[in-house]
Design goal:
The protein is α/β, with parallel strands linked by helices. Helix content is 42%, strand content 16%. It binds pyridoxal-5'-phosphate (PLP).
Length: 350
């Protein structure tokens, strides 16, 4: 719906005029053979920022996560992952279908994984008949739980756990810049305990596409080969990578505005009849509203909001509202008012 306030996802951001101009001027070359100066610069900038040896550019976070798993683990092995992790819920079972991995899932209310709980399921004997546990995958911020931050002390606990068992720790850091801003911990410190990190440029950072996979030279050399096998080796893609360079230079600190706006939205709509929001769990740019008390499904509420020009994301657990680059203070105030009006009207008529 044109002119609508789109709070469905931070993937909806569109590159603005300054980013487009920067992209237009990008130097390009054949990235498949490492000859694209803009891609190389983006990879170097990111590696420096994250304190990792090197980085590799991917078209999507989905591909960079699955290539990371493929490069870390062999078919028939197992990974530990949260039951509502993005790599499990979305991507059409890519860990199983593309990497041949068994996923052992753990459910926790805050998206963290407790090493004590994982301990009894570890199987690292390469001679045994059981699947070898190769890696732990974590997500920061945690999408399905409303953008929660993974406390860095917990990531360090998992680092020690993985080191003890000779296992790998991979971070799906699609929104790790949001986590860094919300926690005041630099991305390099969040990344330090992890062998590999996948970071999205196309979410709140506003680039039209692209993700980076970061890690040591040997790992990224393997990942580069699997990127080719997965169909992700690209050509003169520096024109897109330039959007990523621009995003890293201009759009990181402004994520704080998204967080402030999400908090504001949460505070207002928690007063709407039938909606309940855990305001203190609105840590970054996502607001999760439970609509159970309204007697309407999240899908029905979102359909009504859409008629009034506000787009939100319904799911079986409730409604998700995401703030981003294309939603300013006025839009948040307007959206909040529409949500309250819609719920008030529903309370009187349904
Ligand atoms: C936590 C998380 N990981 C990975 C991805 C996949 O990124 P992409 O859409 O670039 O494939 C997403 C996308 O929303 C995400 O939220």
């Amino acid at each position: 719906m044109s002119g609508a306030i789109d709070l469905r996802s931070d993937t909806k951001t569109r590159p603005g005029p300054a980013m487009r101009e920067f992209m237009l001027a990008a130097e390009v070359g054949d990235d498949e053979s490492g000859e694209d100066p803009s891609v190389n610069r983006l990879q170097e900038d990111a590696a420096r920022l994250f304190g990792k040896e090197t980085a590799l550019y991917f078209p999507t976070g989905t591909m960079s996560n699955y290539v990371a798993l493929r490069a870390h683990a062999n078919a028939g092995e197992e990974i530990f992952v949260h039951a509502r992790a993005y790599i499990l819920l979305y991507g059409m079972a890519g860990a199983a279908a593309l990497c041949g991995l068994q996923t052992r899932c753990f459910d926790t209310p805050d998206g963290t994984l407790d090493p004590h709980e994982l301990e009894e399921f570890v199987q690292v004997d390469e001679e045994a008949d059981d699947a070898v546990t190769r890696a732990v995958v974590i997500e920061d911020t945690f999408n399905a739980l409303g953008g929660l931050v993974y406390p860095v002390a917990g990531i360090r606990d998992l680092e020690r756990f993985c080191a003890r068992h000779g296992m790998i720790l991979h971070l799906d850091g699609a929104r790790v810049f949001n986590a860094a801003l919300a926690s005041g911990v630099p991305v390099a410190e969040i990344a330090a305990p992890c062998h590999s990190v996948s970071v999205c440029l196309s979410k709140g950072l506003g680039a039209p596409m692209g993700s980076l996979l970061l890690g040591d030279e040997a790992f990224i050399a393997r990942a580069r080969r699997y990127r080719t096998q997965f169909g992700g080796a690209m050509r003169q893609v520096g024109i897109m990578a330039a959007g990523g360079i621009y995003a890293l230079e201009h759009n990181v600190d402004r994520l704080a505005d998204d967080h402030r706006r999400a908090r504001r939205l949460a505070e207002v709509i928690t007063k709407a009849p039938g909606l309940s929001v855990l305001v203190e769990r609105t840590e970054t740019n996502m607001v999760l509203a439970d609509a159970d008390a309204s007697g309407l499904s999240a899908y029905e509420i979102c359909a009504r909001l859409e008629q009034r020009g506000v787009l939100a994301d319904p799911n079986p657990y409730g409604i998700r509202f995401v703030t981003h680059l294309d939603v300013d203070d006025d839009a948040i105030e307007a959206a909040a008012a529409v949500i309250v009006e819609t719920m008030t009207a529903a309370a009187h008529t349904d």
